[in-house]
């Protein structure tokens, strides 16, 4: 009897979590327009290149932005870079979704500005992958109430790549060459000193 009651309570909790545990992405209206500077298939480098994004309310939709209090623009993984990577998994429940992990900019929503523009330097810790850009609008309770993204529904268009830091830069290359040259010179100098000492001993 107790085990049946436990199972029933567990199922009830799971059902409640699925219903009230977070906002569902599928329930959000796409009322925000957003564009990003990278072109389809373009390759950018972390720590070197910049992305310019612009966003605003889509004036052509039959909706209101009165409840919008904040917006957050994020860099999001494309499906091709989510395969066999559970830590990047897309989940309809946004409290568990791992698609958009890198914040480009977050600020108060200003309805008086129709087109917001922001330039972002790609951070050095952004991993190598294929991405798109998404923006969420939040209400006063901090809940997602609308979105917009640079790609289509299936997330196949307007995707771009980011390459990670290679770990070798020009300054490091120069330092490496200088160190190698110094090592060779030191070894040669040590050889000459030892040779001169040997000659001195032989004369004595």
Task: Walk me through the structure.
This protein is α+β, with helices and mostly antiparallel strands and 204 residues long. The chain has two domains: 141 residues, Immunoglobulin-like (Sandwich), CATH 2.60.40.3880; 28 residues. It is 26% helix and 29% strand. It has two helices and nine strands. A hairpin with a 5-residue loop joins strand 7 and strand 8. It is elongated. About 13% of the residues have low confidence.
CATH topology name of the largest domain: Immunoglobulin-like
Gross geometry: elongated
Characterize the largest beta sheet: strand count, sense, and whether it forms a barrel.
6 strands, mixed
| Uncertain ranges | 5-19, 168-173, 175-179
Output the structural class.
alpha+beta
Strands, count? 9
Return the domain count. 2
**Helicity range:** 25-40%
User: Which percent range describes the beta-strand content?
Assistant: 25-35%
The helix/strand series, from N terminus to C terminus, equals HEEEEEEEEEH
Q: Mean pLDDT score, rounded?
A: 83
Radius of gyration: 28 Å
The CATH architecture designation of the largest domain is Sandwich
CATH class annotation of the largest domain: Mainly Beta
* Count of separate DSSP helical elements: 2
Distance between the first and last residues' Cα? 104 Å
At a glance:
The protein contains 2 helices and 9 strands.
Set out the fold topology.
Layout (H helix, E strand, L loop, with lengths): L1 H19 L11 E5 L6 E3 L4 E8 L12 E8 L22 E9 L7 E6 L7 E10 L5 E6 L10 E4 L6 H34 L1
Parallel strand pairs: 2-9
Antiparallel strand pairs: 1-3, 3-6, 4-5, 4-7, 7-8, 7-9
């Amino acid at each position: 009897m107790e085990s049946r009651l436990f199972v029933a309570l567990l199922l009830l909790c799971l059902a409640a979590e699925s219903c009230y545990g977070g906002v569902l992405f599928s329930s959000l209206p796409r009322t925000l327009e957003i564009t990003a500077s990278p072109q389809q298939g373009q390759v950018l480098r972390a720590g070197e290149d910049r992305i310019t994004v612009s966003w605003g309310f889509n004036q052509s939709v039959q909706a209101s932005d009165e409840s919008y209090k904040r917006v957050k623009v994020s860099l999001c993984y494309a499906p091709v870079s989510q395969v066999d990577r559970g830590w990047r998994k897309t989940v309809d429940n946004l409290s568990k979704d791992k698609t958009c992990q890198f914040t480009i900019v977050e600020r108060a929503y200003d309805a008086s500005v129709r087109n917001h523009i922001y330039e972002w330097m790609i951070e050095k810790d952004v991993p190598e992958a294929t991405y798109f850009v998404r923006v969420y609008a939040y209400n006063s309770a901090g809940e997602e109430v609308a979105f917009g993204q640079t790609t289509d529904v299936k997330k196949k268009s307007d995707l771009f790549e980011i390459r990670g830091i290679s770990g070798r830069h020009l300054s490091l290359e120069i330092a490496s060459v200088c160190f190698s040259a110094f090592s060779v010179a030191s070894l040669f100098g040590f050889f000459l000193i030892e040779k001169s000492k040997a000659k001195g001993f032989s004369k004595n």
